[in-house]
Amino acid sequence: MAFIMVDVESDGPIPGDFSMISFGAVLVNEQLDKTFYGQLKPISERYIPEALAVSNHTREETLAFEDPATVMLQFKNWILSVSKDRPIFISDNNGFDWMFICWYFHHFLGENPFGFSSQNLGSLYKGMTKDTFTTFKHLRKTRHTHHPVDDAQGNAEALLTMKKELGLKIKF
């Protein structure tokens, strides 16, 4: 299976009413050398300035980003190019990240190459440690910057550490 770590930045809490501004993806392998970065033009007039500020972009900048249908097709093609078999979506906060990616795939392409399920990195770590109050974030090497590729990279590094040093049985 091809585990693909994803991180999303948006200008609000839900897709449709608000917009996914950017996202990053990293194929989880030993090299972490295959990445994708997409910047998407807003699909709604609505946005929350504080939410948008997290992405380090202004509304004016986002209006010049690419058409979402084009970006989602590019992402689908990238997923297919890096996946030998079934791609697995995984993220730090899959309740948020999955919601946007799944909605955008179905809305703009009519399908989602990840299928109908996702994995949560934090929950996986909590299960490994048998502690619902713990976090994996100390396992990141790349600083969490809210640039989605950096954040996906750090989370992928944490997953690799879970495999190499903590004994997680997982195949990439």
Automatic annotation (TrEMBL):
Pfam families (alphabetical): Rv2179c-like
3'-5' exoribonuclease Rv2179c-like domain span: 4-159
Origin: domain of life: Bacteria
UniProt-recorded name of the protein: 3'-5' exoribonuclease
Lineage of producing organism: Bacteria, Pseudomonadati, Bacteroidota, Chitinophagia, Chitinophagales
